[in-house]
Amino acid sequence: MTSKPSNSFYINASQASTSAAVEHLSGLDNQTIERDLSNVLEAVKILDVHCAFAKCKRKTNLMGQNCEYCRERYCFRHGLPEIHGCGEAVRHDERKKFLHPEAAVTSRQREDLAKAKKRLHAKLTDMNLLRKQRQPTAVEECTGYCVAPHVIFRQYHPLKEKNTIGRECSTAATCESVI
């Protein structure tokens, strides 16, 4: 038994309604489904290019306004939220903005913030380079009186602008070896 498809389409995410829709569509042939789907798509296209206000059929595909409260598209006559029915949402939004204002940021403050971010980034980069250069590079045995292994390292000193060579002893004893 095939039933006649209805002109209204509802989308419901419950599993019972989904299985009922599948059962309803399984009895129909593919041509009926495709024809009805094309009718639905054409109706959506028509709705998208016309004003969403009731009884207004002006086209809005070239010029129109999108309402930020109801997300509909209206012609310029019905573009104001108070005219097409979003007046309460506008009042609520404006009241919220008035009671909890956001601090205004001047262009000078934005520039200062950008400069501070650049300086911080440069400083962090320099500190990363210094930290990487201070790591030990080789281990060798002491040739002096100390028997403990030493770590030879090269360290870049930014004020002297040259590499200095140092040696750390792994024990607390003093080492008299010469580099």
Describe the structure.
With 179 residues, the protein is α+β, with helices and mostly antiparallel strands. It folds into four domains: 1-49, no CATH class; 62-102, no CATH class; 103-133; 135-179, no CATH class. 42% of the residues lie in helices and 14% in strands. It has five helices and five strands; from the N terminus they run ααββαααβββ. The chain has helices spanning 15-26, 30-49, 81-84, 87-99, 107-133, and strands at residues 65-66, 73-74, 138-141, 149-157, 162-169. The chain has a three-stranded antiparallel beta sheet, with no helix packed on it. Strands 1-2 form a two-stranded antiparallel ribbon. A hairpin with a 4-residue loop joins β4 and β5 (162-169). The longest helix has 27 residues, at 107-133. The radius of gyration is 38 Å and the shape is flat. It starts with 14 loop residues before the first helix and ends in a 10-residue tail after the last strand. The model is unreliable at 1-14, 137-145 and 161-179 (pLDDT under 50).
Q: What's the helix and strand layout?
A:
Layout: H1 15-26, H2 30-49, E1 65-66, E2 73-74, H3 81-84, H4 87-99, H5 107-133, E3 138-141, E4 149-157, E5 162-169
Antiparallel strand pairs: 1-2, 3-4, 4-5
**Secondary structure category:** alpha+beta
Largest sheet: 3 strands, antiparallel
Low-confidence spans: 1-14, 137-145, 161-179
Question: How many whole angstroms does the radius of gyration measure?
Answer: 38 Å
Strand order of the largest sheet: 3-4-5
List keywords for this structure.
single chain, AN1-like_Znf, disordered N terminus, AN1-type domain-containing protein, 5 strands, 42% helix, disordered C terminus, zinc ion binding, 179 residues, three-stranded antiparallel sheet, metal-binding, alpha+beta, 5 helices, zinc-finger, two-stranded antiparallel ribbon, 4 domains
